């Protein structure tokens, strides 16, 4: 009897086909053949062989863990074979396993993860053999079988992506859960459907669910990859691919088909092959031969064929401090963006383990990521345009990337330069590898390209030449002679043809044809003579200034910078709208200059600059005279620009001056005037008093200082006297100006820039604010005024007194560059952007990492992008090092105390004091006595459960109440003098202490001293005493108040003084930061509280009283500031208005007030109550919820100390508010602030407890004493 074949579902067959085709596109043809012929037994044998191999390597792995998975696949194959009849589909569910276990054998961590993953898949596979006989003909069941097939192949496809990248196998597999959890979830879901009732499977629902999960995974994966890519590019200091713009600009000079010959050249074709031979090509030729254009055409051609080609074009106008590192960074960025799957590897292996992309890290990174491609080609052009001292190092670094190892990867390199010695010597040493391609030997190809180029350019000039040459005779002569004399120089041809644009008569055209220059130098000489025509001295002077600026400026200038620059000279220091040159002025210097797409004006070729700098034609282009004139122009610009910060100038006047364009050079002048001054001095420039530059420097300095005094900037920022850098740290050339009055101003500028470079600002806005707060000159203020004016004008439709056409022209000029990078000394050229979003993206590349202070922690080396990241790390990092016992656990232990003890009215008292209330002896303390005199109880009178005794400390818990606390010492820090103050950081991981001369910061977890902060500008004999310390909420700043009346704000990560706050005439008794770190309050013995803004660095307000101030505190919400006074009172003011809100105590007739000076104040976390500690031995709690302006009401008095209460603070035990006080009686009291109950008395010092502080987050508190010790308690 013939067996009936079960009908198959078309939908199921379609699902199988789609999954198979998707996976098969990911593998090589050889692997497709292998997969189709691999049996399940082959996979088992491969597992056994791999196990034996690992055993021989002493890395035994149990491959039998694969057995359940292979068994499950075997059962599944029997169920699905009906759908696979006549197809190669079936072996593909197990064949990739063989390849994966063989590849992962070299990477044990990945191998274990892979086997674990296979096991998890096995757990999701149902018992198909129990259902297939009954349901194999059911189309719903077949659809689910097909879903399983698709999920298994999708798993194989994603894991297979790592096979070609063996170097990255471990790193790539590290994200297993995020990459494959969606597949495992789908398999589990389909398994549940089968197990419930396969016949009733809702296939439509399952299909839709599968589609949604696939789309969600792809979306999540793309978002994760995009976020990591941003971080990687930020680490590399790049945004996108700047080289793409450069290659587009260069390739525009290539006429159609004029460069096609290079891709057909035999040597280039050999180089383009994927074989390991012919790996290095040196393309060289004379200046202007079109090397860059040929290279750009070659790159574009290879890109069109989807080859792995990466490139870098050096540009003489872009000054990069480390050209070699920039080359490697740019190549790395291109490779990563070409292969997005590399992002995870680079992020995990390099970004997280290297603070910056150092040259060493880049040299390690590039070969690794190049290995991700079996074949790569690098094109590097223009090394000869770099500084001659750098050329050898750049070439060496580039050649290190060369690889002909077929077992790893092949990387071929093409280097294009002039035949310069530094490069030629290195390349010629590699004669076995280098193929030399000299453009001087390619006459035929070059001439054909030049003919094509000439025809195209002449056709563009046809309308003009038809009038001058109607018979075309001259044009034919031009074409013939240009080809004959070009000698392979496209630039020469281009410049000659450009000169035809300024021909206005047949005679001039005939002269050009008959007398063509022989080479570039002669051509440049002729063009220069025409530009600097002696018959037109006005144009000569203007053109010379333009060429001088382009030649010697420190970065490319834009048109709106170059025009005012060219109008300033020693005889014309005042520039107004009427004397500002028109843009047509730049036409004089053509064809030597061009305006690029980014708005910058540059020479058409770097050989122009070389010619001008080496030519003896005119003194105009000598370095000495050039830097003198540029310095003069910068001084004139800045002198007139100071009007923008003149308080007597109106906003409308400032805007009118900016829109006129006369201040266009201000950004460049602020950035570079000191550099040009140094260059002038270092090239032998003299500053005699009769020299115009000297006189103008003196005039500028006088105007600056007068305006500085008028605006009082120096007074506002006199408190920000940071530690000074040395001459070497600033600039050794500063000594060249030591005899000039301008020296101090230059030093101030260099010092501010040096400080800004040390500062780890988290944003461009923060960098700008920092510069503004620390610049004791007017230059930062001037830059901000100019930038704000530009942005204001772009947003206005009309400006009074300004013509609409003028405003529109201004907007057109600045529309693409209005947002300047706010980080000082930004190396990007240009460093201006069309929108705030683009600027912010760029500024992210300046972010510097913040490091964990635990020396043994790996993040001490890696660091974090922000302080928030550091705080998050610190909260989780040291929970492993110190795990405090939860309060709930302690209470459970306490409840095990004998019940009879707990029932006694005085449960903790022993002997005759532990009886019932009816039998208490006359000498026994009453309950209220126990509360008020907890510190006087004798240890022998307290039961063991209600006391803890250490070597040099003891703690008594109130025997009237159930014990809920357990105090123990964690660390003891010994000092060399009395410790007057102590404060925890807001994250609770650090504690700062103040003593004689120094402030010390300790790690609370390890107990190690992190740093000791000493003001090195103090004389050694100075006995300065630190009276108060306080961390800012972000942990980056620490304020220290001292008895010299100065508050020093320290930059904690680097241990330097950020600024000094001065103005108090007596000692600083207390400092406190607002929780949002926006203000800091200072309290002094001169009877004044001062509030300073930490964002602007300015004094916000001064609050005066008639008594000495001992303590200040700011509420957590920042609304109130309180002060404790020696006149027995406390005051509370509104921080926004300075209005006195509450006057607490201090009157003779107030029975609830203190009867001694208030030594310490603190708010409760909600800002509803104020606690005051006094010399009257009490702590009082004041209600701040009453109506404003009231005298304030004391709602509770805490008694127990027997001497002055010197310090008070609050903390929480879960939701329970606690009050802690330290006293001259050497003890510390704990109270429940809600009920007023005293909870414990701690004796841990031999001297007065001068300060107490509670950790905001870790359940710790600290005490400081005049016994020269600090103790941390849990």
UniProtKB/TrEMBL annotation:
InterPro entries: DUF7708, GPIID_WHD, NACHT_NTPase, NPHP3-like_N, P-loop_NTPase, WD40/YVTN_repeat-like_dom_sf, WD40_PAC1, WD40_repeat_CS. Residues 279-418 form the NACHT domain. Keywords: Repeat, WD repeat. WD repeats lie at residues 1026-1060, 1061-1102, 1109-1138, 1151-1186, 1198-1241, 1242-1274. The keyword Cytoplasm does not apply. The keyword Repeat applies. It comes from the Eukaryota. Residues 893-907 have a biased composition (Basic and acidic residues). Residues 912-926 have a biased composition (Polar residues). PROSITE patterns: NACHT (PS50837), WD_REPEATS_1 (PS00678), WD_REPEATS_2 (PS50082), WD_REPEATS_REGION (PS50294). Residues 893-927 are annotated as: Disordered. SMART domains: WD40. This is WD40 repeat-like protein. The lineage of its organism: Eukaryota, Fungi, Dikarya, Ascomycota, Pezizomycotina.
